[in-house]
Amino acid sequence: EKFDIVKKWGINTYKCTKQLISERFGRGSRTVDLELETQIELLRETKRKYECVLQLELALTNHFYSLVQTQHALGDAFADLSQKSPELQEEFGYNAETQKLLCKNGETLLGAVNFFVSSINTLVNKTMEDTLMTVKQYETARLEYDAYRTDLEELSMGPRDASTLCRLDAAQSQFQSHKDKYEKLRADVAIKLKFLEENKIKVMHKQLLLFHNAISAYFAGNQQQLEQTLKQFNIKLKTPGAEKPSWLEEQ
């Protein structure tokens, strides 16, 4: 049984390799679904662009996290000096309060940005990747289909003796099996691409609105609007002072 499995694998690999080389050198015909392949290429390009956005967002969160940590330390330093410098107690005091407020708002914004990053990461590295895995299976099935189609065509043009007719029947059966597999995966890819596009629009509509509202509220100094944005999207921040790694360290 193991020998038969290895033998079938070897024959299949040989046929597919032969077909692939033939296509690359322009000698073999290739089945092409222009509409589907255009959609697949668009998905791959979209994934590359979203990966770029994801990397930029991660860089932004790293820089902004450092800024918030610096503001926190500066607020503590001002508060300490306020207690130890009676002549400048008021000035140090309101600067300490300002830095603490900025720090609080910064942590709120980081919570929103982290939610944005997490959602884009899921879209790119799970949802899109899952579809592309099906695309790879489809592309392999397409190559096998063309390899066995070519094999059948070559046998059909040969002499029709008893031996050839037996091989022709076997080739026809194998061709039909690979054709069914190819058509099923082509349909699967078309469905997944359709649902992916719908899901992408839904996710990005929500996330881009979140990102815009949070960034706008933060830089406008509108603390109430910033907090309202998190409530609107059901984002919960970690309890301050919890002995856990920061959200950034968990990415």
UniProtKB/TrEMBL annotation:
KW Phosphoprotein (keyword) present: yes
AH domain mapped to chain residues: 31-231
InterPro entries documented for this protein: AH/BAR_dom_sf, AH_dom, Arfaptin_fam
Gene3D superfamilies in the record: Arfaptin homology (AH) domain/BAR domain
GO cellular component: cytosol; Golgi membrane; trans-Golgi network membrane
Protein keywords: Coiled coil, Golgi apparatus, Membrane, Phosphoprotein
Protein name: Arfaptin-2
GO MF term list: phosphatidylinositol-4-phosphate binding; protein domain specific binding
Compartment annotation: Golgi apparatus membrane; Golgi apparatus, trans-Golgi network
